[in-house]
Amino acid sequence: MFDAEDAVELRALQARAYGRSGALSDAEVTRLRELEAARTSERESRTTEKPRPQMPEQVVAPVPEPSVATADTVPATAASAAARFAGADTAAPSGHGAGADADSRGAPAATTLRRHWRLALAIIVAFAVIGVAVGWLLFSDRGAAPIPLSAEQQGWQSTIVASGDFDSGSLRAMAEEEGVVISFATKNDGADVCLVLASADATAPACTTREQATIQGVNATLTKAVDASQSYDIQAQMFLTPDGRPAVIARSYITSPQSTSMFASQAEAEAAAALAEKTGLDSRSIMVAGYDDEVPIWTGIDMSTQRYCLVYDGSMPDPPMVCDDSLMLADADRTLVLDVAGTDDGDITRYEYRFSYGQQYLTVTKGLGADDAAGE
Prior knowledge:
This protein has nine helices and 14 strands. By secondary structure, it is an alpha+beta fold. It folds into three domains: 4-105, no CATH class; 151-255, no CATH class; 266-375, no CATH class. The strands form four sheets. The chain has a four-stranded antiparallel β-sheet. It has a four-stranded antiparallel β-sheet with strand order 8-9-10-11, with no helix packed on it. A three-stranded antiparallel β-sheet has the order 5-6-7. A hairpin with a 5-residue loop joins strand 5 (218-225) and strand 6 (231-240). Helix 1 crosses helix 2. The longest helix has 33 residues, at 107-139.
């Protein structure tokens, strides 16, 4: 009686016998023959009792020539087993001989090729796409996507392109600082890289070789007028990363020809001018030493006494302020300490500003009690 367990064992032996690297021992070959004979006998008895259509048996296995331990151990039913692997029921009617089995041996291979030609074509197309992608990654100038530009800024870019100073199609806007467009471009067929700053009135390009851009970067500065007495200095620096991507850092300051002070924005410059009127500080010397959250801490020189002063905020009529007791240049290293009480909790915040010829820095200490501040 050929049962379900025999069927499982038969399929396992067939998979090993007819697989690409399959091999059976003599005992396993003998068992395979017994199981196939038992299954054939079972089918013949079922056909005799009640003929019915046979459903194809699906076996997940390739269809190569059988590979067993010895040449004389190939089962006589190899042709029918190979046909079953291809998905067809090939129980041969009585009267079909060895010639029919031999003819059916080549059919599964042709059927397999017809079924899998689409898969082979898909693999070829996939390799082609991968090749194009790899080529683009290796040889293109890669970087961040271009930033959106206004219609006016696009006009500036068009003028730069029309100049012919850069490789066609290489100009790419990377950043914007105070309305100035900062772009990357190449020259001499990509041998040189450029940093280009552009505004409505001026263009400031700077170029160097790729090697120098990777090591030292490229720097460019463009001056943009704010009013008759002030201007924006927009500074940009670009490096090339090891994989060829341009990276841009930009900063801007408001400056005046009559002053050495620099301000981050027009609002900061206007606050400095108002502070000069309230405190009598020289407007040419006022600068921001640092911020406590959003509150600026200012320094400047008193015009009447020439003392160096530290001022908190400056937005109120009489801002907290402390000045050095000696002249600014009396000592090489001086420190100003300003204590400001909080309006809510009464805790004191200390602003300690150290200044010298070499460097200046501000230290902010929060949460001091009144006794701590008085003891200092």
